[in-house]
Amino acid sequence: MNELRKPKRQSRKNARALRKNMTEAESKLWLHLRMKLLGGYKFRRQHPIGSYITDFACIPKKLIVEVDGATHGSKIEIIYDDKRINFLKSKGWNVVRYGNEEIYKNIDDVLDDIYAHLTELK
User: Which of 20, 31, 84, 101 is the most exposed place for a label (fewest CB within 10 A)?
Assistant: First the structure.
């Protein structure tokens, strides 16, 4: 079966755990995304794709929204994130990233940017 539809069992289990333990920034963004306030587009949170778990995914538009905390600036995390993004892009996904601070201080700008990406995608 298609790897996008049938993620590994461990990925599903990890995604469930992450849904219960979202960061404060993820929770703040999810409040807006879950209510379909961005043009009615539906998002899933902690959505597994292959062996990776994305923060938020709009499946019809193949858009992934990632929320980056402080650890994403380390050299090891940058290498991991690049590998992960390359995998997701190879599967046809578009990825946008926002830092925690952007979400805390400029949630409206973040939402406007996500909506712009959604409307640009076929």
Answer: 20
Quick: pLDDT tens for 40-93.
999 999 899 988 889 999 999 999 999 988 665 678 888 988 999 999 999 999
CATH number at residue 107: 3.40.960.10
The pLDDT, as a whole number, for residue 75 is 83
- On whether residue 82 sits in a domain, the answer given is yes
Domain encompassing residue 47: 9-120
- For 16-31, letters b (16+ CB in 10 Å) and e give eebeeebeebbebbbe
**Single-letter residue type at 28:** K
| pTM exceeds 0.85 for this model | no
Q: What is the distance between the alpha carbons of residues 30 and 16, in angstroms, rounded to a whole number?
A: 15
Inside any domain, residue 111: yes
Cα–Cα distances (Å) from 38 to 45, 77, 86, 104, 112, in that order, read: 15, 30, 26, 18, 8
Instruction: Tell which wins on pLDDT, 21 or 19.
Output: 21
Closest of 87, 86, 73, 78 to residue 11, by C-alpha: 87
